[in-house]
């Protein structure tokens, strides 16, 4: 009888699912917005309540295990500016936690943006958009990216786009450029009224920015 009880108990323990709310267990919500209804609250980290729209899951998992700096000038909160020196390195998670956190984060969605043509841009079109990205629209005055020699350069007041092609979902990028207010109430980025074709080409250009292309 005792043995049976032990077996049942251990069986129960083994089959008990890991906590269904690992984001809450890990207190991620102390710095990150996890629910759209928290829109009035101010946070010290970027919004995660649309993680399932924004991130590529493989990047997300790797980031949680081995965080990198995305906003070299610090994350800018509503009331003030958190300078670089005040930004501690992001806590890293175990592989197991990162898997569970990624799974849960990918369920957080607030929109269903239209898919973007996944074909890479032709060489000529890529050169044209790269010129516009750098000169016409001046995106690099605020965002880091790669120059022709594969070196990181650009401004640091916006999130780094050096690894945008591995980090962000194309459909989300296009939707953000089209209607930033869906995701960011008061964006510090200028609103570009791009033609739909230009917008798609910019998105496809951003998807070519990958860390493995750093030389
Ligand atoms: C002490 C505050 C704090 C806590 C707690 C915290 N984070 Fe963060 N997190 C930040 C800040 C600040 C950044 C911005 C870092 C950067 O841009 O380089 C960030 C960035 C991120 C990013 C990248 C977001 C983006 O848009 O680039 C993810 C994903 C993330 N955190 C997930 C988590 C998860 C999951 C937890 C819980 C296990 C967590 N964070 C706990 C402060 C925190
Ligand atoms: C004046 C500075 C500035 C310029 C110029 C600018 N951005 Fe931004 N961008 C930002 C900031 C700041 C954010 C972070 C979100 C926010 O505060 O709106 C951002 C966010 C983004 C994001 C989302 C990145 C993320 O990880 O959340 C993308 C993609 C992006 N910008 C693309 C572009 C493109 C493409 C251009 C040029 C057409 C451009 N940006 C021009 C400041 C700028």
Which helices and strands, and how do they pair?
Elements: H1 2-15, H2 22-25, H3 51-54, H4 57-65, H5 95-105, H6 123-136, E1 144-146, E2 152-154, H7 164-167, H8 170-178, H9 196-206
Antiparallel strand pairs: 1-2
Helix pairs in contact: 4-5, 6-9, 8-9
The structure holds heme C (HEC) (2 copies).
Taking the alpha carbons of the first and last residues, their distance comes to: 67 Å
Which spans have pLDDT < 50 for at least 5 consecutive residues?
7-17
Q: DSSP strand (E) fraction? A: under 5%
Bulk shape:
globular
Question: Can you offer a commentary on this structure?
Answer:
- This protein is mostly helical and 215 residues long.
- It folds into two domains: 21-105, no CATH class; 123-213, Cytochrome Bc1 Complex, Chain D, domain 2 (Orthogonal Bundle), CATH 1.10.760.
- 37% of the residues lie in helices and 3% in strands.
- The chain has nine helices and two strands.
- The chain has helices at residues 2-15, 22-25, 51-54, 57-65, 95-105, 123-136, 164-167, 170-178, 196-206, and strands at residues 144-146, 152-154.
- Strands 1-2 form a two-stranded antiparallel ribbon.
- Strand 1 and strand 2 (152-154) form a beta hairpin.
- Helix 4 (57-65) runs antiparallel to helix 5.
- The radius of gyration is 20 Å and the shape is globular.
- It binds heme C (2 copies).
- Residues 137-139, 141-143, 157-159, 173, 176, 184, 187-190, 192, 202, 206 line the site of one heme C.
């Amino acid at each position: 009888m005792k043995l049976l009880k032990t077996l049942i108990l251990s069986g129960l323990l083994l089959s008990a699912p890991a906590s269904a709310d690992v984001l809450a267990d890990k207190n991620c919500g102390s710095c990150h917005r996890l629910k759209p209804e928290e829109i009035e609250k101010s946070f010290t980290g970027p919004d995660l309540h649309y993680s399932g729209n924004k991130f590529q899951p493989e990047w997300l998992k790797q980031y949680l295990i081995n965080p990198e700096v995305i906003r070299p000038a610090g994350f800018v909160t509503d009331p003030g500016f958190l300078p670089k020196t005040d930004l501690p390195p992001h806590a890293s998670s175990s592989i197991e936690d990162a898997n569970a956190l990624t799974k849960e984060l990918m369920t957080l969605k607030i929109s269903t943006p239209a898919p973007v043509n996944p074909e890479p841009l032709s060489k000529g079109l890529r050169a044209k958009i790269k010129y516009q990205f750098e000169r016409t629209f001046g995106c690099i005055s605020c965002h880091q990216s790669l120059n022709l020699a594969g070196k990181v350069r650009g401004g640091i007041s916006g999130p780094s786009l050096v690894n945008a092609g591995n980090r962000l979902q194309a459909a989300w990028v296009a939707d953000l450029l089209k209607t930033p207010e869906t995701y960011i109430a008061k964006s510090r980025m200028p609103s570009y009224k791009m033609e739909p074709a230009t917008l798609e080409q910019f998105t496809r250009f951003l998807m070519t920015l990958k860390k493995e292309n750093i030389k």
